[in-house]
Design a protein that fits this description.
The chain has no helices and 19 strands. With 247 residues, the chain is mainly β. The strands form two sheets. The protein has a 17-stranded antiparallel sheet, with no helix packed on it. Strands 1-2 form a two-stranded antiparallel ribbon.
């Protein structure tokens, strides 16, 4: 379409379908002025199949605002055991000057063994712009321990952190205990998540590094009163309280 000295391009798309093999939603609305290098766009894509879920979003406004985001989840079964699943999740957001991507791979190797790897990247050089963690979980090792956990965490500019610990699950409580090794440093961490009352959740965490102790507590209430209480202790108390009441 041409108006005066400029030409305009308009794109419009809407498509929705739902079958047993594919659920899909496509929506796009775009206006561009090529001579002025102007573009205004929203492009949304959602697809769901038995083996993959994908979501993509592209936004553009004027000359400089460009945003692309995506999230995909792929599911595969083991050739040896169809009930064993592997999951691959990838996500990212790209914006001028910002390039973030992340992922999670989780594989069930047997009835009692799981391995996983997750990463967060913000540049091209993995040695300076990536955090990566590897995890091994072994299930049902004793009556009091639900999982044995091993993990390795790699971050730029610091020594690799290796962790060994346990995960205990109860009806309303999760308790994680970790022994950590970073070069010559050793420290322990404990995290407890439980429900002290209906519609309430409490998180307690403790980190011990030699003689230094850091403690944190977060309490969330979600009923007729919406509240958040956070308390961090290291030599001094740092407290945050927020409350919303329904009248």
């Amino acid at each position: 379409m041409r108006i005066g000295h400029h030409s305009y391009a308009v794109e419009q798309l809407y498509s929705s379908q739902a079958t047993r093999a594919l659920q899909e939603l496509l929506f796009k609305l775009a206006l561009s002025v090529p001579e002025k290098n102007l573009e205004y766009k929203i492009d949304l894509q959602h697809r769901l199949t038995p083996k993959e879920t994908s979501n993509r979003l592209a936004l553009a406004a004027h000359r400089t605002i460009r945003l692309n985001a995506y999230w995909t989840h792929t599911r595969e079964t083991s050739p040896q055991e169809p009930t064993y699943l592997s999951h691959k999740i990838r996500t990212g957001i790209h914006y001028p000057g910002v390039d973030l991507s992340g992922g999670l791979d989780l594989t069930q190797n047997s009835q009692v063994s799981f391995t996983g790897e997750t990463f967060l990247s913000w540049g091209q050089d993995a040695t300076t712009s990536e955090i990566r963690a590897q995890v091994e979980l072994t299930k049902g090792v004793s009556a009091n321990i639900d999982y044995l956990a091993k993990a390795k965490l790699a971050m730029p500019y610091v020594e690799v952190i290796e962790m060994d610990g346990t995960i205990m699950l109860d009806q309303d409580r999760v308790l994680i205990s970790l022994d950590c090794q970073q070069a010559a440093k050793q420290y322990t961490a404990e995290v407890s998540l439980f429900s002290p009352a209906p519609n309430q959740r409490k998180l307690e965490a403790k980190l011990s590094i030699n003689s230094l102790i850091y403690e944190a507590l977060v309490h969330v209430r979600n009923d007729n009163v919406k509240s958040l209480h956070a308390d961090v202790l290291h030599n001094k108390h740092y407290i945050l309280n927020a409350v919303v009441r329904r009248c």
